Amino acid sequence: MATDRVLEALVAYDVDHQILDCDPDLADTAEFCAHYGYALDQSANAIMVVGKGDPRTYAMCVILATTQVDVNKVVRKRLGAKKASFAPADETAEITGMVLGGVTPFGLPPELPLWIDARVMDSTQLIVGGGSRDRKVLLPPAGLLQLPGAEVVEDLAKVRPAI
Predict the structure, then answer these.
(1) How many domains are contained in the chain?
(2) Long-range contacts for 52-58 (Cβ within 8 Å, ≥24 apart)?
(3) Distances (CA, A) of 116 to 1, 4, 163
(4) Please, which residues have CB within 8 angstroms of residue 54's CB and are 6 or more apart in sequence?
(5) Are 126 and 140 spatial neighbours (Cβ–Cβ below 8 Å)?
(6) Is residue 1 over pLDDT 90?
(7) Which of 12, 43, 109, 140 could form a disulfide with 65 if both were Cys (CB 3.0 to 4.6 A apart)?
(8) Residue 19: its pLDDT value, please?
(9) Residue-range definition of the domain harbouring residue 103
């Protein structure tokens, strides 16, 4: 079960963290932050991306909720693919064992690259998915760097345009 792998990873890598329970209907970032009183710039999304070659290549990107992954430039180049996109929900679930709204950088398959946008590291506290839609993890961003293969990437994400 993904939630067990998440907890095991948090303990194994000695990550200072707090588990936050949440209503599964409020697990999506904007709803979670609005309901539980957290700012979007202290919430991070773990988003799986895919290079559309043969074979397909994947990476997990961790970005602030106020930004969007630069799939067409940075991700595509890093994956060495001609085309890249966000991985479909079913592929994300198949590879990570986690559903959207609960995807986290903890408990991932060891061969999956983990790229962290540099802006994430500027936060004092960070909220990420908890492996399922009914919980989140609150931690200092440095805890992400304790994961094997974690790499901080400048400009992995772009600031979302104002609406």
Answers:
(1) 1
(2) 52/81, 52/82, 52/83, 52/84, 52/85, 53/80, 53/81, 53/82, 53/83, 57/81, 58/87, 58/91, 58/95, 58/112, 58/113
(3) 24, 23, 25
(4) none
(5) yes
(6) no
(7) 43
(8) 96
(9) 2-159
**Residue 132: which residues within 8 A CB-CB, separation 6 or more?**
2, 3, 24, 98, 99, 102
Backbone angles phi, psi at 151, to 5 degrees: -140, 125
Residue 3 confidence (pLDDT): 73
Which residue, chain included where needed, has tokens 């970032």? Answer: 29
DSSP string, 76-126: HHHHT-S-EEEPPHHHHHHHHS--TTT--STT--TTS-EEEEGGGGG-SSE
One-letter identity of residue 115: W
Q: What is the pLDDT of residues 82-140, one digit of tens each?
A: 999 999 999 999 999 999 999 999 999 999 999 999 999 999 999 999 999 999 999 99
Residue type, 136: K
Query: CATH no. for residue 155?
Result: 3.90.960.10
| pLDDT at residue 163, as a whole number | 54
